[in-house]
Amino acid sequence: RPLGAHHIEMPATPYAVWKAIREAGDQ
């Protein structure tokens, strides 16, 4: 599987929440 896929499987963390908000805001 591609590198970095494990990040998607990680539980929600402050960084993951921030990153999701960032990506949602960029769209």
Describe the structure.
The mean pLDDT is 76. This protein has one domain. It starts with a helix and ends with a helix. The protein is built from two helices and no strands. By secondary structure, it is mainly α.
Write the layout of secondary structure elements.
Elements: H1 5-9, H2 14-26
Relative strand content: under 5%
Indicate the percent of residues in helices: 55-70%
> How many DSSP E strands?
0
Report low-confidence residues grouped into runs of 5 or more.
none
General form: flat
Q: If you compute it from the alpha carbons, what radius of gyration comes out, rounded to the nearest whole angstrom? A: 10 Å
The number of helical elements comes to: 2
Mean pLDDT: 76
The ordered H/E elements are HH
In total, how many domains does the architecture comprise? 1
Describe the sheet with the most strands: none
Straight-line N-to-C gap: 26 Å
- Class by alpha and beta content: mainly alpha
